[in-house]
Design goal:
heterodimer; A: alpha/beta; 6-stranded mixed sheet; 8 helices; 6 strands; globular; B: mainly alpha; Cyclin A, domain 1; 2 domains; binds guanosine-5'-diphosphate; binds magnesium ion; Rab-GAP-TBC_dom (chain B); GTPase activator activity (chain B); Rab-GAP TBC domain-containing protein (chain B); 14-3-3 protein binding (chain B); GTPase activation (chain B)
């Protein structure tokens, strides 16, 4: 149940989790929003969703995070959920090289279906599996620089990097948005994160029982 | 949690008041077939409405309970009156005093009452599967007696009777065989069961040799990708059920899913199909043991299960899954048109029975696709405990025209509308999260049966032609 504190926020950002199935998207989400990890979580069918608010630069940002099914067959359905997303965590599994090779394909998905100015962060998950590492940090780092992506390694299992990953992408979205808003006020026609993207959902979520529910 | 279908819209509640929940009381009950002419059977069939339920198997308590929960409508009194004492008498004369051996005999012509259990295993398991030892402490319920006479009485099982009985739930130790028959895996002619099983099982062994027992480097890239996906999903299959932690179970699940994918390239393996295999594994494995479902679910049964039994369960599961999926093929092909169609039908139906709820969903911005996709894709396996799904599927399997396609939509609508009141209090976040994790943890067969009953009422109201609808409307 959402508490009142959860409902009061300055901005609402929609972020999607994408990547091959089994890389740990659902566990990253549950670790971040509920501090839970489950070695035997069920596969995600369709989309799932959770929210959490964080503080950055004096503002409260509510992240609305959409977790999608990774399998190819579901792309037709899941791609609809890229609409309105201002951020994407593109996850691979550091112990399975093929999931890293597929990152290119996921970037293409984003180019085809997401907003052009979406902030993308590459996330190498399962960093706890040191003895099984199949993707070197340097390799992933180089790739992310080349594609202009933020990059971090995480472990949903031992929680390392998880909060940082979400904190960083949300902060980056916030900065980008403020910058764009400013340049828009300057009269430039630089693309800004349209208010529609953040506010359309905002409207639905405006505290309905702000004063009397507890 | 209140068990009443609070969400039922007023008109439906009214309908339920004047209708009882039993399917046969709503439908015309076909006259008993003359082939089932053994004494007593005809009489039973005539009385089928009156004591269809297995009330005698339950304690007086639960029975009472059940009625109060079924009672959205003052049906409780009706019900209690409607139960004639006959089943009780029968069970006393037939079981408690142990005198009625003639009945036992004609009900149990073979040592293994489940002819779907193979000869290889029956020697080891016959003592456990022998029906005479079946309900050790419990008296045989009326429902069981009905099943036994339908299954064992004549060489050709009356599918119509079997369907009719199964709609209201299959007694656990008849389930394995009944599911196989209802799915068309086994023929109605019982004399052909043994040969059918041995043929199908050897066909499966052949498929396994061809697709599975080959070196990995002889698989194409896409085959390897499929295998990888299956291997990712098998350990995530029904993790709340200890049985599925067992390595041998995981191995057969992996194999049969992969082989199914190889043989059905138009859809190949799609996540969620792994879920659909689980009821079969549990039910077929339970078929080797009396009252084996609990034993199976908690995994303790695996100590006793032999390799032969497991091989049979694997092959039977493969074929039954194949038959199930062939009825809903386009749910899993490219773009999943069947899934989209089902979700649309659910939305239409909900709009007709609970427009307020639909308005609310629209208002907060939730689309049916966002929550109902999973209901369709996994046939409610993600919403209910496995044992509840098994009960649900008894009814689905007994539906003649596509229980998994058609009737399922009515069940989903009843399910959704059941929570209507709560849902209408919720905003987007809360509602979405509620839908991801529906509060069905305490649901048992009873709640499933209520759900089925109201789904049935919906299907009679909205299932037929427009003309039919009008008739019903005017009687409201
Ligand atoms: N060792 C390890 N295992 C993980 C980690 N994150 C997820 N897993 C496991 O990987 C499997 C798939 O995780 P899941 O979150 O369902 O992946 P998804 O398909 O991307 O959503 C599960 O068995 C998880 O327990 C991690 O950081 N470390
Ligand atoms: Mg997932």
């Amino acid at each position: 149940m959402t508490t009142r504190a959860d409902e009061e926020y300055d901005y609402l950002f929609k972020v999607v989790l994408i990547g091959d199935s089994g890389v740990g998207k659902s566990n990253l989400l549950s670790r971040f929003t509920r501090n839970e990890f489950n070695l035997e979580s069920k596969s995600t069918i369709g989309v799932e969703f959770a929210t959490k608010s964080i503080q950055t630069e004096g503002k409260t940002i509510k992240a609305q995070i959409w977790d999608t099914a990774g399998q190819e067959r579901y792309r037709a359905i899941t791609s609809a959920y890229y609409r309105g997303a201002v951020g994407a965590l593109l996850v691979y599994d550091i112990s399975k090289h093929s999931t890293f090779e597929n990152v290119e394909r996921w970037l293409k998905e984003l180019r085809d279906h997401a907003e052009a100015n979406i902030v993308v962060m590459l996330v190498g998950n399962k960093s706890d599996l040191r003895h099984l590492r199949a993707v070197e940090t340097d390799e992933a780092m180089a790739f992310s620089e080349q594609h202009n992506l933020a990059f971090i390694e995480t472990s949903a299992l031992d929680a390392s990097g998880v909060d940082t990953a979400f904190q960083r992408i949300l902060t980056e979205i916030y900065r980008l948005m403020s910058r764009r808003n400013m340049s828009a006020e300057d009269g430039g026609n630089a693309p800004k994160l349209s208010s529609g993207q953040t506010i359309s959902l905002n409207a639905d979520n405006k505290p309905r029982r702000n004063c009397c529910s507890g | 949690m209140s068990q009443q279908p609070r969400g039922l819209p007023g008109f439906l509640r009214r309908t339920l008041r004047s209708t009882t929940y039993e399917r046969d009381e709503i439908l015309d009950v076909p006259a008993p077939e003359s082939t089932d002419s053994a004494d007593g059977v005809v009489e039973d069939a005539d009385d089928i409405d009156a004591h269809e339920q297995d009330a005698p198997a339950r304690t007086a308590d639960t029975k009472e309970d059940q009625h109060s929960t079924l009672d959205v409508s003052g049906k409780k009194q009706l019900r209690t009156v409607a139960f004639p004492p006959l089943p009780r008498e029968r069970e006393q004369s037939g079981q408690l005093d142990g005198r009625d051996t003639s009945q036992d005999n004609h009900l149990t012509p073979t040592p293994s009452k489940d002819s779907s259990v193979s000869s290889s295993a029956s020697s080891q398991t016959s003592s456990r599967t022998s029906p005479s030892s079946a309900p050790t402490n419990q008296p045989k319920s009326y429902k069981e007696t009905q099943f036994e006479s339908t299954i064992s009485n004549s060489p050709i099982i009356s599918l119509r009777n079997l369907r009719k009985l199964s709609w209201n739930g299959i007694p656990p130790h008849h389930r394995s065989l009944t599911w196989k028959i209802l799915l068309g895996y086994l023929p109605a002619n019982t004399s052909r069961h043994t040969s059918t099983l041995s043929r199908k099982r050897s066909e499966y062994r052949e498929a396994r040799r061809q697709h599975y027992d080959i070196p990995d480097d002889s698989r194409t890239n896409s085959e390897q990708e499929t295998l990888r996906q299956v291997l990712v999903d098998v350990p995530r299959t029904a993790p709340e059920v200890p049985l599925f932690h067992n390595d041998r179970i995981r191995r057969i699940l992996t194999r049969l899913l992969y082989i199914w994918a190889m043989r059905h390239p138009a859809s190949s393996y799609v996540q969620g199909i792994n879920d659909l295999a689980t009821p079969f594994i549990v039910v077929f494995l339970s078929g080797y043991y009396n009252n084996g479902q609990e034993l199976c679910l908690d995994g303790t049964v695996m100590e006793k299960v032999t390799e032969e039994m497991l091989e049979e369960v694997e092959a039977d599961t493969y074929w039954c899954l194949t038959n199930l999926l062939s009825g809903i093929q386009d749910h899993y092909t490219s773009d999943q048109p069947g899934m989209q169609r089902m979700v649309m039908r659910l939305e239409e139906l909900t709009n007709r029975i609970d427009v307020q709820l639909c308005c609310h969903l629209k208002e907060v911005g939730i689309e049916f696709m966002q929550f109902a996709f999973k209901w369709m894709n996994c046939l409610l396996l993600r919403e209910f405990r496995l044992s509840c799904v098994v009960r649900l599927w008894d009814t689905y399997l007994s539906e003649e025209n596509g229980g998994f396609e058609d009737f399922h939509v009515y069940v989903c609508a009843s399910f959704l509308v059941h929570f209507s009141g709560e849902l209408q209090e919720m905003g987007f976040d809360e509602l979405f999260q509620f839908m991801q994790n529906m509060p069905t943890q305490d649901w048992g067969d009873r709640e499933i049966e209520i759900l089925l009953s109201s789904a049935f009422v919906l299907s009679t109201l909205f299932g037929g032609s427009e003309a039919h609808l009008n008739v019903v409307r005017t009687t409201l």
